[in-house]
UniProtKB/TrEMBL annotation:
This is Aldose 1-epimerase. Its EC number is 5.1.3.3. It comes from Ruthenibacterium lactatiformans. GO terms for molecular function: aldose 1-epimerase activity; carbohydrate binding. Belongs to the aldose epimerase family. The active site is at H172, E310. One of its GO terms (biological process) is glucose metabolic process. Pathway: Carbohydrate metabolism; hexose metabolism. Coiled coil: none annotated. Beta-D-galactose binds at N79, R80, H172, S173, Y174, D244.
Length: 345
C-alpha cells in the first residue's frame, strides 16, 4: 500500500487540512482528510474494471464543515443519549441536546485531527478535552486507517482517559455500491448477522426491549434487497421512514467477526463488514434529501441514495445498564476495529 498527501483546504478557523490517498496493489484507493477523519472517497473496481466511488460525500472542505457527517469519525458517543444526560458513579452529566431533547453523535465529526504515516498506515490523532459536549475526562484519540492488498479498509480506534467517562465510536460512511451518484440503493442486497434488534421509541431511542427479527421486515439474516420491506406497515419502519435501528450481532463479545454483507448485482461489487463491536446501526438515509448541499458531482443526494452500517455499542446505553458497558476508566484502553472489505465478481 502507498500513501500520498496533499493540501486540501483551510477551515473557517484558519487550520490547514491535508488529504491522504491510500492505494493498494489492486488499484483500490481511499481518500481521507484530517477534518473529522472523513473518508471522502472509496474507489473500487466494478465487474468491467471501471473504478467507482462508492462513498457519498462533498467536494469541498466548506461543505464538510457546514453539512452532514458523510464518512466522518463519530463520537464521543455515536448514536443517541436519551434526554441528553447520563449518570456515572453517582454523578449526572448534562450534554448538549442536538436531536430534539436527545444528544446525537457528538462533535468528533467536526474536529481537526493531525495525520501522519506510521508503519504503513494513516494515523490521525486528537484530544477531546474534559467537558467537551458535556462529557467528563480528557480523552486521547487515535484513528488508524489501513488498506490491504485484499481490498480491506481497516479502521482501528483507540482512546484513553484521565477520568471515568463513556465512549462509543463509529464511522458514518454512506455507501452505494453502484457509485455515489447513481441514485437509489434500494435494489442492492444486504445480509446482517443479527437475529435481534433493540426496539426504538418515537425518537428512535431504545425502549429496553430486545426483539427478534424473525417474521418481521427487520429480518436480514438472509440476503434481500434493502428496499424490499422498507415501506411495510410496520411501526418501527414507519416512525423512521425506513431503517434507523441498532441490530445486535450474533457473535462473541469483543471478537472480530463478520457482521454484514452488502452487494450490487449491477456492478458485481460486494462489501463485507467485520467488527469487534456488539451492534450495527443500519441507516437507509431516510432524510438525506433534506441536505441541500451538493454532493461530489454537483447534484443533491436523494432519500435512500446511500446506506450506513455504523458498527458500535447500543444507543442510550447509560439508561440501560443491561446493555454492554460503554464506560472507560483511567488505566484502561478503548480499542475497537471495523473492516470494510470489497470483492468484485
Amino acid at each position: 500500500m502507498s500513501i500520498t498527501s496533499h493540501y486540501y483546504g483551510r477551515t473557517q478557523n484558519g487550520e490547514e487540512i491535508y488529504q491522504y490517498i491510500l492505494e493498494n496493489a489492486a488499484g483500490m484507493r481511499v481518500a481521507v482528510i484530517e477534518y473529522g477523519c472523513v473518508i471522502t472517497n472509496i474507489w473500487v473496481k466494478d465487474n468491467t474494471g471501471e473504478l467507482r466511488d462508492v462513498a457519498l460525500g462533498y467536494s469541498t472542505l466548506e461543505d464538510y464543515e457546514l453539512g452532514g457527517v458523510f464518512g466522518a469519525f463519530i463520537g464521543r458517543y455515536a448514536n443517541r443519549i436519551e434526554k441528553s444526560r447520563f449518570t456515572l458513579d453517582g454523578k449526572t452529566y448534562e450534554l448538549e441536546p442536538n436531536n430534539g431533547p436527545n444528544h446525537l453523535h457528538g462533535t468528533f465529526a467536526k474536529k481537526v485531527y493531525k495525520g501522519s504515516i506510521v508503519d504503513g498506515g494513516l494515523v490521525l490523532r486528537a484530544v477531546s478535552p474534559d467537558g467537551e459536549d458535556g462529557f467528563p475526562g480528557n480523552l486521547e484519540l487515535t484513528v488508524r486507517y489501513t488498506l490491504t492488498d485484499e481490498n480491506a479498509l481497516v479502521l482501528d480506534y483507540t482512546a484513553t482517559t484521565d477520568a471515568p467517562t463513556i465512549i462509543n465510536l463509529t464511522n458514518h460512511s454512506y455507501f452505494n455500491l453502484e457509485g455515489q451518484s447513481s441514485g437509489s440503493m434500494l435494489e442492492q442486497t444486504l445480509c446482517l448477522n443479527a437475529s435481534t434488534f433493540t426496539e426504538g421509541n418515537a425518537e428512535t431511542c431504545p425502549t429496553g426491549r430486545i426483539l427478534p427479527v424473525a417474521g418481521t421486515p427487520m429480518d436480514f439474516t438472509r440476503a434481500k434487497p434493502i428496499g424490499r420491506d422498507i415501506q411495510a406497515e410496520y411501526s418501527q419502519l414507519q416512525m423512521c421512514g425506513g431503517y434507523d435501528h441498532n441490530f445486535i450481532l450474533d457473535k462473541e463479545p469483543g471478537m472480530l467477526a463478520l457482521a454484514a454483507v452488502a452487494r450490487s448485482e449491477k456492478t458485481g461489487i460486494t462489501m463485507e463488514t467485520y467488527t469487534t463491536q456488539p451492534g450495527v446501526q443500519l441507516y437507509t438515509s431516510n432524510s438525506l434529501q433534506n441536505d441541500t448541499r451538493p454532493g461530489k458531482t454537483g447534484g443533491i443526494y436523494g432519500r435512500y441514495q446511500g446506506f450506513c452500517l455504523e458498527t458500535q455499542h447500543y444507543p442510550c446505553t447509560p439508561s440501560h445498564p443491561e446493555f454492554p458497558s460503554v464506560e472507560l476508566r483511567p488505566g484502561e484502553e478503548y480499542h475497537e476495529t471495523t473492516i470494510y472489505k470489497f470483492l468484485t465478481e
